[in-house]
Amino acid sequence: MAENGRLEDFVIITGFSGAGKSQAMATFEDAGYFCVDNLPPEMIGSLADLFGHEGSKVERAAVASDVRGGDYFDGLVKVVDDLESRGVPYRLLFLEAGDEVLINRFKETRRRHPLANGGSVERAISGERTMLAPLKERADVSIDTSDLSASRLRKVVADKMLTRTGVGRLAVTFMTFGFKHGSPRDADLTFDVRFLPNPHYESELRDLTGLDREVIDYVENSDGIQEFYERLMPLLDYLLPAYDQEGKSHLTVCIGCTGGRHRSVVIAEHLARIYDQRDDLLVDVVHRDVEKPPRRA
Question: Would you say domain 3-161 falls under CATH 3.30.70.260?
């Protein structure tokens, strides 16, 4: 328990409607934070005061504040300014996503956008983007959830916002993708491996993926692959500690090929096996596009 009921961490979760605030809130709840959802901005300061009173047992808290009207954003900016001036140890988590992704999410859930007021979702999102700009600039952590599943979002939030499980352990995600499906929005480092021979043009390999032994053997025996590893791994060995020293808790290293099914998958799995042996790293692998069907030749 914190001495004198002092609040140690107060997280404000905000951002676009439909960007995943509920999943983010669940992450903090699972970590033992006292959580309050859909809290009006004008009540955030009072709640922080309550948690900071002597005798309070709340050391860590998270609140999610959703848009309710046009004056919401100005109100939340003022709350953040007030918390900062009073020395309250707050952090602002901002969640966003691309317009098309947000529109599809509202269509799938059949929910009404809070700013639509009978109008189109597209117009509401456009207005929300303009109004949210000042908050995004103030965010301690900003996450684009466009390419993230619910479970993946919760992991990213945990890696970026929660205390590490071990001293000096940097969480590294090797993410594969296909350039034809678009580059990941949350990439910290991106490497293009389309210079390697493409298994797609081998009829017996086309419908397989980089998780299959036949494709692994094909890629690992390709001209240029060893030279690539010999140059890439020293670069990663230099960059990973540098990011860690700068205080970064999570690093997404993206490996891209044409379709995200063959070359990138083999290479990411190879790198993950090597770096997972290090005690100072928490390694994860995500294959974004591996399940997407191959194009026909």
Answer: no
Which of 151, 268, 252 shows the shortest CA–CA distance to 209?
268
Query: What is the phi/psi pair of residue 211, to 5°?
Result: -95, -10
Q: Mind giving me the DSSP string for the chain?
A: --GGG---EEEEEEE-TTSSHHHHHHHHHHTT-EEE-S--HHHHHHHHHHHHSTT----EEEEE----STTHHHHHHHHHHHHHHTT--EEEEEEE--HHHHHHHHHHHTPPPTTTTTS-HHHHHHHHHHHHHHHHHH-SEEEE-TT--HHHHHHHHHHHHSPPSSTT-EEEEEEEEEGGG---TT-SEEEE-TTSPPGGGSTTTTTS-TTSHHHHHHHHTSTTHHHHHHHHHHHHHHHHHHHHHTT--EEEEEEEESSSSSHHHHHHHHHHHHHTT-TTEEEEEEESSTTSPPPP-
Q: How far apart are CA 162 and CA 35, in angstroms?
A: 14
| 151 token code pair | 């479970």
Show the tokens assigned to 283.
């390694």
Q: How many helices and strands (H and E) does the chain possess?
A: 9, 9
| Residue-wise pLDDT tens digits, 67-103 | 654 455 667 888 888 888 888 888 999 999 888 888 8
pLDDT in tens, 145-181: 888 888 888 888 888 888 654 444 788 999 999 999 9
Any idea where the domains of the chain sit in the sequence? 3-161, 170-287
